Amino acid sequence: MPGIAENYSLGQSVEIGKIDKELKKLWREGEGAMTRASLINLAVYSEKPGSLEKNTQLIARIAENHACRALVIGANRNSKENRVEAWVNAHCHVSRAGNKQICSEQLSFSLEGPCVKLLPSIVFSHLDSDLPLYLWWQDDFPEPMDPQLWEWVDRLIFDSQTWRDFGAQMRLVETAQQEAKQRIVLCDLNWTRLDKVRYAIAQFFDHPASHHHFGKIENLNIDYAPGFKSTALFLIGWLGAQLNWKVNQPARNGSCRLVDTNNRKIDIELRQREGDPIGEIAINSSGIQFRVAPAQCGDLLEISRSGENETALPQSMPAQSNDPVDLMTQELLRGGPHSVYLHAVNCVRELL
Amino acid sequence: MNRAADQSQVNPLREGLSTRAVPQPCSVVIFGATGDLTHRKLLPALYNLAADGELPPAVTVIGFARREKSDADFRREMEEAVRKFSRQTVRDEIWKNFSQSIFYHQSDFSDEAGFKSLAERLDKIDKERGTRGNRLFYFAVGPDQFEPILKHLKAVDLNKACEGSWARVITEKPFGSDQTYRIDHFLGKETAQNILVLRFANAIFEPLWNTRYIDHVQITAAETLGVEGRAGYYEGAGALRDMVQNHLLQLLCLVAMEAPSDLSADSIRDEKVKVVHCLRRMTTDEVATNVVRGQYAEGAINGQPVPGYRNEKNVNPKSMTDTFVALRLNIENRRWWDVPIYMRVGKRLPKSGTEISVHFKKAPLVLFNKETNESNVLVIRIQPDEGISLRMQAKMPGTSFRIEPVKMDFHYGTSFGKASPEAYERLLLDAMSGDATLFARRDEVEEAWAFIDIIENAWSAKKNAPDLFLYPAGSWGPEAADELLARDGRSWRRL
Fold this sequence. Notes:
By secondary structure, chain A is of the alpha/beta class. Chain A is 28% helix and 32% strand. Chain B contains 14 helices and 17 strands. Chain B has a nine-stranded mixed sheet, sandwiched between helices. Chain B has a six-stranded parallel sheet with strand order 3-2-1-4-5-6, with helices on both faces. Chain B has a two-stranded antiparallel sheet with strand order 9-10. Chain B starts with a helix and ends in a 9-residue tail after the last helix.
């Protein structure tokens, strides 16, 4: 049966008009041995050459944790030839509960030339009805954006770390969100990258007895890997937005300054170092240092609070992997409107 | 517990990161630290919470038991247990840090000096590890030990907490102040929690959830296991106390309760307690007709011969302990009037599984009366293979009007790849963060006991006590249990 063995292939080539028929055939042949599962429609769009194959591999792994109907789209706007191709496939894995194969279906589309503009009508007519549509846009957003697209999308997933022009791209995304009357939830994988680090920092201040430190933070050091300055800026943007700090000096020459509501200065040093996207973070507040750093083993964070007359209690917490599948898996686990992200974005804009 | 006080100062950095209350630094004192529950459930659950980054680093575990051993011995023993029973693989890096938070305190439960030295030790831990005077006492011991432990905790003032701190107690079943968290691990299961979501977040079910549309409800908790080395405890408890008084009645409450005014612990528990309060109390005669008790005799499970209960180790050869109970209950309120609730629980049954099935009334027999006699059944599977299914009628393809039941089936494991945390993880975390929603409140427990006591009294009566039926291991219980439903023209659902 086509595509049931996990071989990361695009599967069986089909005519666009016969996709539904071929899908039915696919499931009929696997009846008894396979269970189709789907919680979302997950569309992945890329214009990078070879993206269809690469994204097929990603979807195969993502679908192990998030049953979905995947629509993988590879587009080439610059092609002179107007061509549409489609494939159907299924990604199966053995469920935790038993020995039955749980399968997510994948529809793949290659769009070339002017037909790329017909993305909504060609691709989104194949959504699994009643399930939300998550669109993972892997490139910079083109201008102007197709307003028809937003009528379909519930959550828009992107990675601002790859953007060439953060300000311009964010304006486009925000405009799209406004056009959709705020219905679309913006999901930035660059923000997801910070999930575990934010969690680690937040837990220092869970007990009310630690809250006085919010008003005493003097300075921060943040290490980031080459190419991940925007991630570090989001971290600062988050702290600024949540603690009511205002940007006093934008991020230039490796440092920036924010001020709190009492006009007290908080100096932040940004250091580019090889390693994880976000490396060591040190927050200094009246003789206490709150430190979060990647552990040597790679998938844990070392967390400590140190100061005079304090017993250091080392702690390990899970770190966020920078692998796109792990980032997507983490993002798909989250719900809600990501309002904290939107607050952080406002602060990041001022830092730029 | 004062949740308002707990949440009076919110950490702004938590916004959007966690929708649940955050656990506070505390000392977790486990009484019965060398027992099975600690090894199989509690320490693995605490380790998993630590590995997932859910525990504050200051959380400290103090095992309290009679046997002599050092902190290092206890840590080694716990490491072995966690490596064996944890749902996730133990990471050396995480264990190294976590193990430093584990200590052992040797004392007899009846020795007040041991509790005094415990109090001193906890004070020292507060200073050294920042546990801030918060104490969670977990009674992983038999109910006969509850009283001496509580008495000694009180004697050394460990029942009180300093201002701004708390002292909580978690007791294991069978449940016997309001800082007592009566753990019911069934309530920590995803599907049990999902009952409220199913009922109150889906507009299609609630309008049908009443006597007009529901014919009856069945709750089954079956296990293939026998007494498995717990004879000492089980001889004094039996299935009624071990399962019905707590787990099954808690599940019934979730199925039968009215919508709470909000999702706070007290609002939910206010509604649950009303259900138990409305359970019609049986007379002694009615116990004989509405409750069936059984005990497994020799038989076979999965093709393997197994001994009868009375031949199990440490069981009285003339034991009258119930290993199976089937009941017919009625909830006397407007919603459930004339809707019988059938419950059954048993050991050494052919299959393990816990489920609630809601049997709807049959469609009017007008159009298809010759074709179908089946009704719609909504099944909520608690364990294993947690999920929900709905049986409905469908026309078979063909020219004739042939109707067959079909099943719409939702499996957690199929739809959500992520493994659910163990029930004990959720419940321990809730106790540490002061969220009592999934724990039974004192009045719920008292109401449940008031109901159960009537049955127990009837069983222990010297004259005309209802029979204890023997059933072969591997069967679905005594025939009297089937007759209980057959009298009403119904039958048990096949698991």
